[in-house]
């Protein structure tokens, strides 16, 4: 399990914003992942994604890594924020955009 934790940690550290999700941003494989992608797209930030359906070790490992039972999971500048429900609450309150601005997350290329 420590090998998976190292892989996940490397991914989280290498990207300002990373979404562990089912599917890809262009083809999400569940409604929650689709909603998470839509929220990030509305925020206009650059982000990377990891399709947990392509790697069963990461799919299970990310749950232990974050101590969070569900996917998708969002990390910003190495910090775990939560899943799509928390993302939606933060987005609706304006907190997600504010956090992205405070952390100086790069904007998505048009």
Automatic annotation (TrEMBL):
Annotated Glutaredoxin domain residues: 17-80
Family to which the UniProt record says this protein belongs: Belongs to the glutaredoxin family. Monothiol subfamily.
Transmembrane regions: none
InterPro entries: Glutaredoxin (IPR002109), GRX_PICOT-like (IPR033658), Monothiol_GRX (IPR014434), Monothiol_GRX-rel (IPR004480), Thioredoxin-like_sf (IPR036249)
Source lineage: Bacteria, Pseudomonadati, Pseudomonadota, Alphaproteobacteria, Sphingomonadales
Gene designation per UniProt: grxD
Record organism: Qipengyuania polymorpha
Pfam families: Glutaredoxin (PF00462)
Keyword line: 2Fe-2S, Iron, Iron-sulfur, Metal-binding, Redox-active center
Stated name of the protein: Glutaredoxin
